[in-house]
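Troubleshooting entry. The earlier prediction with zinc ion gave an output that would not parse, so I re-checked the input for stray whitespace and re-submitted. Clean input:
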Amino acid sequence: MNQQTLERFDMKAPPMHTAWYLRPLTHVLSAPDVLFHRTKIKKTRMEGLKPPYLLLCNHNAFFDFKVAMMAIYPHCANPIVAIDGFIGREWLLRKVGCICKRKFTSDMMLVKQIIKVIENGDICMIYPEARYSLCGTTAVLPASLGSLCKLLKVPVVTLICHGHHIDSPFWNLHKRGIKPTEAEMTVLFTPEELAAASKEAINERLVSAFQYDDYAWQKERGIRVTYPKRAEGLEKVLYQCRHCGAEYRMASRGTELFCRACGKTWQYTELGELQDEKETLRIPDWYEWERANVKKEVEAGLYDSGELPVTVRSLPNAKRFILLGEGKLRHSMDGFSVRGVDADGDPFEMLKPVPSLYSCHIEYEYLGKFGDCVDLNTLEDTWYIYPHDCDFAVTKMALATEELYQKWRRDSGKPNPPGLA
Ligand SMILES: [Zn+2]
């Protein structure tokens, strides 16, 4: 396959005002779900606020987008959306005002697009975590955010939703029907406050505004999830046994999470905790325990996935995925490498060294048919890489990406405060 001749997504197309005939549609399509979940939107310092402004939202489920549409009513926004969100509906998304981005690439064109939205007098809507939260807690924020806010000189508004992960967790999207859900919309900075603050101070406030924990939220409110298969899929995030330490041996059935290596079983309670006969564990704590283990491997210089057989699908444009071919993925102390040969016998390769990637996007059971994958991007292409017939956890690769990057920052004498990359 000659990759040079493939049609590429036009990343330079200027952002549009939401087309007048679609303006009611974004609200009409969002309202039923928001009504169903009886979402309570609490607004702070929002009196008299008019576009243009920057809207920064946390990201747990597609429902986030619907709540945002209702929160900004009667205005519309230009959201930044990853290219996979555009598949098969590019025309519509462009008319609605969406701006396309390839995840975790450093993209000067995107900054120009954001400036244009603000010049148009519109709301630029960004999910700065750039991926769905894996277990309902904050993901790392880019350190460039503070500079961006200072550059734009417009109000910075945060929209933090609670309950969306509990309603439809990333590891098993089945909707649990949680109600009420909550959202907090706050003017974090006025233009005057931005001018007076350093970019470090802006970042610090953003990181603290973005602290959320959906499982703590569920427990505090006593919200019960009675879905009988509520534990199924949890092993995607909790891939390492908390009891014996074995990796890739966790499994789930009904309300149980268990280890196939040692046989230990936990009950996933209606209040979102894991219980055995002795103790109760929180999912985000288990996840952070896994992170600490990955960090130890990285610090010791031992992290290495080994060479994994993979199927690679590419997304050069927003029409459809193209099967690139079979190859080998390795994630190690040097970062990611993917190499393979396509059906025509042409080689393909993508290298993502550690400094180029502060985090990465993963998917579980993508589109319900392809399995788990890692999503790696260049400015021109997006590859969904599916390991198969081997032991692996894409969650571990995501954790290792962040820990490798943080180690590189520390070793280069430029560490970031917690929560920033
Ligand atoms: Zn075990």
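This one parsed fine. The first strand starts at residue 40 and ends at 44.
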